[in-house]
Amino acid sequence: MSRTFVFYNPMLVATPKRQALLKRLEALLRDRFAACGQEMTVAPTLLAFSAGSQAAEAVEAGYDTFIVCGGDGTVFQVLQGIAGKGVALGVIPMGTGNVIAQNLGLPRDPERAAAMLLKAKPREVTLGRLTVHPVGHKRSRSWYFLIAAGMGLHAALMNLSQTGQGKRIGGRSAYFAGGARILLKDPIEEFDLEFTAVSGETRRYAVSEAIAVQLPHLNLWQPGGDLFAPHLRLAWIPRTGRAGFLMSVLKALSNKVPMEGPGNPMKIRPYYEDVTRMVCRPLEGADGRSRLLVEADGEVLGARYAEIGVARERVPLLFPE
């Protein structure tokens, strides 16, 4: 008998309206699964980054399908416990960005998305793998990701709120306002980027931003990632000042950037490359007080060093028909 485990983020159901929504979602799912003779369990994620351990325990208990009622951060946490274990993952969007749901073609309305999810089919997708040195820890740690991972100012944007509460106070407009402040005021730090292209060629540049993408769309930006490809889509901006950085961001958002490689001298604009591995680290002789942050799927996980590649593990993701 199939067994489904439904996780929800309790921080996203703090109001009576959201609690009522969760009850309706639970009733919809439970009725449909019961009609098919399937067992379903519903539980909150207990603490920050605890959902991975909860999910791993549920896999050991025999659950074969996991549905996440939450945002991309909650999906990221659950993913840590189920990657490579052959269990399916579905998403009901209840967060701020809901980038994964957007790429699956799910509506922002959770109830409509749940109805579509009940008819979804699993398709195995590629996962990225990020290895970092967490701040204050001597040992490195690795994480799986579905959306993107990288180093630079975009990670500082994610650091507006590692718990997500800041994204909900004032809504999306306050979150994007905070991002604009970072772009206009935070220092543009340069760092070393080394990557291996799908051709096998290794290249190295001094850059201001680097992000390895899994998905075709990240809100307005269309970097052209592919969940089924055996590589990652790397986007990067050469070393530049604030004006060049801002211009490159605008060019990226226009989605009209040419895809040819950097020339000599290199133009200041975003560049794209399909890669199997990349490493980000401070430039030689850089100030030890660097604030370079590293993120994956919107979670800030470390600083100053990141190794990013394609994971051996995969996950069956539920795609609506």
From TrEMBL:
GO molecular function, one term: kinase activity
Protein name: DAGKc domain-containing protein
Entries under PANTHER family matching the protein: SPHINGOSINE KINASE (PTHR12358), SPHINGOSINE KINASE RELATED PROTEIN (PTHR12358:SF54)
Organism: Acidobacterium capsulatum
Domain DAGKc intervals: 1-134
InterPro entries tied to this protein: ATP-NAD_kinase_N (IPR017438), Diacylglycerol_kinase_cat_dom (IPR001206), Lipid_Phosphate_FormReg (IPR050187), NAD/diacylglycerol_kinase_sf (IPR016064)
